[in-house]
């Protein structure tokens, strides 16, 4: 998998683009004016592995809160600005590490120029965040939404470049995965700015994570993308888990444990679903990048999961504990979970 070459930018302490790892980001869902709640959510996100967090700035009071939020955050903060360009000044003054501007609702070039000048003085990058739901131009002029999105982004890029500003990151998000994929594929060869990938308004975790995995995963596999956000109607930490699962599935990042579990079949003689769920719950507390297998039979279990660091292959009333595909112990069914977790602790 060869990666599109992008010029890296710095968002606070985090590098996006170039050879840097694909960065995982999310967005707080608290009222930004509620400073303690927002700080607590950022801390929780950071603990889950979020590397950059975006915060909505809907009004002056939210912008004012950013200073204290920034002082208490261990990860870079990006201010999400819509409609009122003056909120970007307040955010910059508060010390944010990045701005997200939506060209669909901040359209006046003079206002944009003022924001760009202030961002340049502080060397703060700007994400040109195109959203299919709020496109700035006349849709009838374009053969497809993707072309409309790309054109809107390119126009904004040109405006920023004429202002001698190149700390740019781009996103082209749509709900529809094919539209999103098409838009990113189109823009990828047109610029060298880093690309922020996401499927917007993807939905509840069960469907939203799949929709995001399809859209983001296809692009990442093609080498397109430098940072990702999985947008889910859920607690933000679920976005982080989903983002890392996408990156782990493509061997792009290692993060925490990976559970390998067989689907079960006519050979299974234990409640494999319940066991896998229990193991998964316990693995949530582990940060080490280990692979754990829960398999339904001794016939194929160890062989099918030979990459796993440790695992269990369940038989009738007893199961085999294995490491790297080799059986190292046999345990009674009542002890499956405890012995497996004890083995994991030894890793
Ligand atoms: S590992 Fe065994 S029980 Fe699980 S699906 Fe394969 S054959 Fe069936």
Structure description:
- The chain is an alpha/beta fold and about 350 residues long.
- The chain folds into 2 domains: about 10-250, TIM Barrel; about 260-345, 2-Layer Sandwich (Sulfite Reductase Hemoprotein, domain 1), CATH 3.30.413.
- It has helices spanning about 35-50, 60-70, 85-95, 110-120, 145-160, 175-185, 205-220, 235-250, 270-285, 300-305, 335-345; strands at about 10, 15, 25, 50-55, 75-80, 100, 125-130, 170-175, 195, 225-230, 260, 290-295, 310-315, 320-325, 325-330.
- Helix 1 packs parallel to helix 8 (about 235-250).
- It is elongated, with a radius of gyration of 23 Å.
- The two termini are about 30 Å apart.
- The structure holds iron/sulfur cluster.
Features:
elongated, Sulfite Reductase Hemoprotein, domain 1, 11 helices, binds iron/sulfur cluster, 15 strands, TIM Barrel, alpha/beta, five-stranded mixed beta sheet, 347 residues, eight-stranded parallel beta sheet
């Amino acid at each position: 998998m060869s990666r599109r070459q992008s010029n890296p930018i710095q968002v606070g302490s985090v590098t996006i683009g170039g050879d840097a790892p694909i960065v995982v980001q999310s967005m707080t869902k608290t009222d930004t004016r509620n400073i303690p709640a927002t700080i607590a959510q950022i801390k929780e996100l950071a603990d889950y592995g979020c590397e950059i967090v975006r915060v909505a700035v809907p009004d002056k009071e939210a912008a004012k809160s950013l200073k204290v939020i920034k002082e208490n955050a261990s990860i870079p903060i990006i201010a999400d600005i819509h409609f009122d360009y003056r909120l970007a000044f307040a955010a910059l003054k508060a010390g944010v590490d990045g701005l997200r501007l939506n060209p669909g609702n901040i359209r006046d070039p003079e206002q944009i120029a003022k924001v760009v000048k202030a961002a340049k003085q502080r060397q703060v990058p700007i994400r040109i965040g195109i959203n299919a739901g709020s496109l700035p131009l006349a849709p009838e002029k374009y053969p497809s939404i993707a072309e409309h999105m790309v054109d809107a982004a390119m126009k904004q890029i040109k405006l920023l470049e004429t202002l001698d500003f190149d700390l740019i990151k781009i996103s082209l998000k749509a709900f529809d995965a094919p539209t999103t994929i098409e838009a990113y594929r189109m823009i990828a060869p047109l610029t060298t700015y880093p690309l922020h990938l996401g499927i917007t308004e993807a939905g509840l975790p069960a469907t939203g994570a799949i929709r995001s995995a399809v859209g983001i995963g296809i692009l990442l596999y093609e080498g397109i993308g430098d940072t990702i956000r999985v947008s889910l109607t859920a607690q933000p930490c679920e976005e982080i888990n989903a983002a890392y699962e996408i990156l782990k599935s493509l061997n792009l990042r290692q993060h925490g444990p990976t559970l390998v579990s067989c689907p079960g079949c006519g050979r299974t003689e234990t409640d494999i679903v319940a066991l896998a769920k229990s193991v998964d719950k316990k693995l949530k507390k582990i940060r080490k990048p280990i692979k754990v297998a829960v398999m339904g039979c001794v016939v194929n279990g160890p062989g099918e999961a030979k990459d796993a660091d440790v695992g269990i292959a369940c038989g009738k009333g007893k199961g085999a504990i294995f490491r790297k595909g080799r059986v190292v112990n046999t345990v009674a069914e009542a002890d499956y979970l405890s012995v497996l977790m004890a083995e994991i602790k030894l890793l």
